[in-house]
Amino acid sequence: MEKHKGLDAIVVGGGPAGSCLAGTLASLGLKVLVLEGKKFPRDHIGESLLAMSMPYLKELGIIPKLEAEGFPKKTGAVFVWGKSKKKLDLFMNSSSPGYAYQVIRSRFDEMLLEHARELGANVIFDCWAREPILNENGRIIGLRIQMNDGNNQEIYAKYVIDASGLAQFLPKKLKLPIHIDGHKRIALTSYFEGAQRLESPHENNIISEVSKDGWLWYIPLNDKLTSVGFVGDAIDITTDPNEMLRSQICSTSLVKEKLGNSTLIRDVKLLKYTNHIVDAPLWKDGYVLIGDTAIFVDPLFSTGVHGAIYSASLAASALASVISGEITEQEAAEWYQDHVQRHYLRVNHTVKMLYRIHPGKSRFWSTRNSFDIGEEDAEQIVSSLGVSGLTFFINTYRDGVLELPPAIVKLIDEFVLPSNEIQEIKEEEILVLNSEMEKVYRPIIYKKKLVPGLTIQHKRNRTLSVEMSLQSSHYKIISSIDGTKSAKEIYELIEEDMSEMERNKFYVYLGSLKQLGVLHEYKNTFSCV
């Protein structure tokens, strides 16, 4: 067997998770090898990206290539849901840059992997990971791999990153426990030509609509091609996939209308999956699990690719800092575990909430919808969702479009929703940290690295959290707020240390924190008995 050494990381899998991690590490000067068993391009579902993924793709440097490729831009999503089945428009205005792309995954994934190669990552195709190599302490130090020509090799690295997706290479080899949430699921995937579009300027937006036994997605991929799929439970697939998809489409209104006289151009494919999270450390003993290998959640909110990119970005930043000695492996592993788990819970609760509030008589819906939840369950749900997950439900409830369980309705007035209106701060105003907020010293990502930082978060997750490096001007500002100094005094105290932060930006920053409920105006009140 041939042996290779000197690698910082071996990445198993060249999908979005693996290619984004490899590209980021390579851009930081690390030596990375990606092992991909298939030839690219290859088919995949999950064509609808999210605006929240765009900053990560921008930092990776691939946005100009996506623009040049001509992928259609989407500005939001349309949901046909709830008792009334009204059309709900969900816009991306609050998420910079306010749009995302609908992509043909075979091309998108190929572009990401090629971009990683351009950044310096080495990629080997037709190569399959077979066994992890462990040292005497049980730490993974490499892989035994097999080429399609039968040639076997041993490859060594400081870390092995599992981005093998639903194949879950390392969880299966290491017999890691996996928590399965809910029923075994299926997705029926298909492509149509000649389907209609929504009215401009929303013609590229995704449609998600309830059907008799689940729901359907409708994704415009270009002027001619539309991806249409059905998501349901495996137990309900009692007919041929083509017939099952047809019957589900016929039970809808908007999707059925838009398909009109379109033509199905490929037999329907059936994919099986589960909602899951690895119930073990995602980073331990020389390995890191990212993307679908670590977690997978129902695709209702198109979070699959984002979860891959997000976890890859977290892992890459943490690995770079550990390898350079700037942070300990234990700190990085705990930080990564916490962020990925919270992402999983937030997305999972968001999906379950939308299922919960749609009435239906079929087996699929009758086993999911429920308004009868207690105060304790409601608190757990809204705390997991937080502002980022609950905003959609609060807005549609207040607009009278969707209903919410009464126990949750009682809690929604406590939330501070995102707003473009920043509160004005007067120079003489004295500020103090909201008593519901807490300071947590933990690492944050700064310039693609994991560095010591401070997070200010609500004790019950009622507003957005604020992160800052301990070396930043923002940290100096926050550290000076103690309920005794005016805004002007704080500015004068740290002015010389504020770098390029101008006076106006200083007050805007304080105003944004006040608008979020992080800061309050200090008032010295007393009472006489």
UniProtKB/TrEMBL annotation:
Superkingdom to which the source organism belongs: Bacteria
Enzyme Commission designation: 1.-.-.-
Matches recorded under Gene3D superfamilies: 3.30.9.100, FAD/NAD(P)-binding domain (3.50.50.60)
GO MF annotations, alphabetized: oxidoreductase activity
Keyword Oxidoreductase: yes
Keyword terms: Oxidoreductase
Record-linked SUPFAM superfamilies: FAD/NAD(P)-binding domain
Family: Belongs to the flavin-dependent halogenase family. Bacterial tryptophan halogenase subfamily.
The protein's name: NAD(P)/FAD-dependent oxidoreductase
Organism, as annotated: Paenibacillus enshidis
Lineage: Bacteria, Bacillati, Bacillota, Bacilli, Bacillales
